[in-house]
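Need fresh eyes. Consider my entry:
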Amino acid sequence: MSISKKVIVITGASQGLGDGMVKAFRELGYRIVATSRSIKPSTDPDIHTVAGDIGEPETAQRVIREALSRFGRIDTLVNNAGIFIAKPFTAYTAEDYANVLSVNLNGFFYITQLAIAEMEKQGSGHVVNITTSLVDHAIDGVPSVLASLTKGGLNAATKSLAIEYAKRGIRVNAVSPGIIKTPMHGEETHAALGNLHPVGHMGEIDDIAQAVVYLDGAKFVTGEILHVDGGQSAGH
């Protein structure tokens, strides 16, 4: 077992933003632990996959345990797993509410607690939370209360954790995306969704991946909410 390369854990890693991050960090030589409900085994010996529901504490425990047994350390955790349900506020069901809280909040809490405990032993580490610019700038016609409730909480937690662990060598940041071209948005929706951004188009998966790459190398940056949203959070 070698610990000479940096090790990154990425949640929600089977498709979309998570898959883009896996590719970006692998190109930089990182060793990767990738997890999601539906993730498949990897043929790359430097990519270890763990299938499971990140909202369950047992999954978080398994991810961290296998990261340490396989690669010996955890340098970075990216809390990318998240779900978005666009419904009028009064149409949300108890199941919708439970599902969003489970993935977006429980999926952050359990694995981040375990990862930071390991980072403290090392005296270094970095956590990046993927949130949403809808927290800062709600859009008429895009109902997003549950997203704002949960991802807004992650923005606040990012700053709180950054201060709590600043003197212990652990940084905590967030990337706040606009609407990104992922499999959840059909191509027929791209023009309309693009017009919701001041720049007039949607973002690309690599825009978010490279933002995370930047933050991981930015040693003097902590407590930052980096908006990668085509100007969405600035106004319209």
User: Anything to note?
Assistant: The radius of gyration is 17 Å. The helical segments are 16-27, 57-71, 94-122, 145-164, 190-194, 205-217.
